[in-house]
Amino acid sequence: MISQQLNDQITLIGPDDDAGLLLRQYWQPAALCDDIAFGLPFAVNLLSEQLALVKDRSGFKLVTRLLDENYSPTVIPPAEEIEIDIDGPTYPTVQKNGVIFAYLGSGEPPEFPSFDCFRAPNTHVFAFKGLWRCNWLQALEVGIDPAHASFLHRFLQDEDPMEGYGKQFRDTAANTDIPMTKILREYPRPEILVDETEYGLKITALRHMKNDLTHVRVTNQIFPQAICIPMSREMTITQWHVPIDNENCYWYSVFTSFDKPVNKRLMREQRLQEHTVPDYAPRKNAENNYNYDPREQKFETYTGMGLDINVHDQWAVEGMGPIQDRTQEHLGRSDVAIIRYRRMLRQAIADLRSHKLDQLPMKHYATSKIKGPLSNDAITKTSNWEKASQAVDFDRRNLCPWDASI
After folding, report:
1. Verdict on whether the full-model pTM lies above 0.85
2. What is the pLDDT of residue 1?
């Protein structure tokens, strides 16, 4: 457990709050490129600031907008109702593979790393987002907990009942025909290793199996508030958890294919069946109990909330309340990645307050040289798990039609 003062420090993201000042030192996803179709200016609520995406001769930028008395941080007004505050601040933007990033900090923005989601050609990526009604930190922390997948995303059947959407954890592990659902279900207590990297944390979950085999799952925390995880053998997900205000956030995901081009139209249509636009609010939510079905919970899934793992995560993080009360939590061995991340976050806040900007993760001049990261599933001999995991990653990169070399 931590004090209320510390919980406030690592969760609140206003322009004068410690975490808010830190997040402003990094590029933040502000909109999808697809959002432009809704018309400009397009309302953007980001880091407790009410902004609008506009375009001029120099390209896209974020400007401050005037608010009416009916303002809500999770409502996106139509373009014709948006008024621009010509005296407010303006922020630069950059487009990266379907996402428009904005920099709300002072000084020069950092370089972008050469992550796979940025290096891949436009044909091999797909970007989407979704609204969660909770603080950004609890949304992030569920993604860096490898143990939760064995419970929250437990499927009681191993066949794949639907193609494409909701398929994560319904593939087979690399180099085997063993379903991921079976591995997660039968080996729910992984050994978790956490290594600090130049981009954040590398998180390795080892599920030791029979016959001296180990399932190796490598995920990553990308500082300050992103994750990179395997979706299948061919695809990874890089996901940012972006504060709207203290009690609401968006997740932005870039799906990156190492194999075939992605079908953007189909992927977007599938996800729009589960979300409304232009706010990207999930159709399954607390108001309809996330479409909980007790029969499904008995025979098909651990939660009884369908096959979309985003809904499982949404229920878990929103169920903690708008801001998780960490003064009452009791972290255990499986929370090692969360513990290490919070230490990194607190250190970065301390460095920022001491004006040691060059010590912040991914703020130095060499950031553009950071590639990867490794993110995959593999089953291998226990004695050789690390080299085998790397070999699976190298094989995938060597066969990749675009330059994924590291």
Report:
1. yes
2. 84
